[in-house]
Design goal:
200 residues
Length: 200
């Protein structure tokens, strides 16, 4: 079986590695350059199209569950008109981290195909597990997505509540904790936390 496959592939492989006898090096380089630009442009376009709130809520699992909850929070509607969309919180902004996150998200496509959370009941059953994955990701990257909008350097602790000012100066500025340690459930409802260590 393997020998037959190798015999079938061999002529194509030899064509690929053999120097061209009819095309000039300049033409090959130019065609390769243009093909590279087209590939890169297509790749980035697809990346950006899948990095929009419209794309995120195109499946009912997101639209009917977590997006409906987001619309009830200050991250969606507030006095300043600044709005956080799905990718703002769930996809890092810098390119290398974004690519890594997109590769992780391929598991979500798998879940869509197999109907892992296709109904509200299935979603609620898996909600704690899904939330914990996100909390671990935020904890690991020091709440990078939060910090894209919320800068410690720009915080005026005197304009925060006394409790918030104390907590931020004690834990956030010292690096002892990160945003997600205290702000779980800020944009989506908390799952049932019964039995989770550290929760009453």
């Amino acid at each position: 079986m393997i020998r037959r496959l190798l015999r079938w592939v061999q002529p194509y492989w030899l064509t690929l590695i053999r120097p061209s006898t009819s095309l000039s090096l300049g033409l090959l380089v130019t065609c390769g350059f243009i093909a590279g630009i087209l590939f890169w442009g297509g790749f980035n376009t697809a990346l950006e199209l899948t990095n929009t709130e419209r794309f995120c809520v195109s499946c009912h699992e997101m639209r009917d569950n977590v997006f409906a909850e987001l619309k009830e929070t200050i991250h969606y509607t507030n006095r300043s008109g600044v709005r956080a969309s799905c990718p703002d919180c769930h996809v890092p902004h810098n390119w290398t981290d974004k690519i890594a996150r997109k590769m992780q998200a391929s598991k979500e496509v798998w879940g869509k195909i197999f109907g892992t959370i296709s109904t509200r009941e299935k979603f609620l059953d898996k909600r704690l597990e899904l939330a914990q994955h996100e909390w671990v990701r935020f904890k690991t990257n020091n709440s990078l997505e939060c910090r894209n909008c919320h800068s410690m350097e720009s915080m005026d602790l005197t304009r925060q509540s006394e409790r918030a000012g104390i907590m931020h100066s004690t834990y956030l500025f010292s690096g002892e904790k990160t945003c997600i340690d205290c702000h779980k459930g800020i944009a989506h409802r908390l799952p049932n936390m019964a039995g989770v260590p550290g929760w009453n």
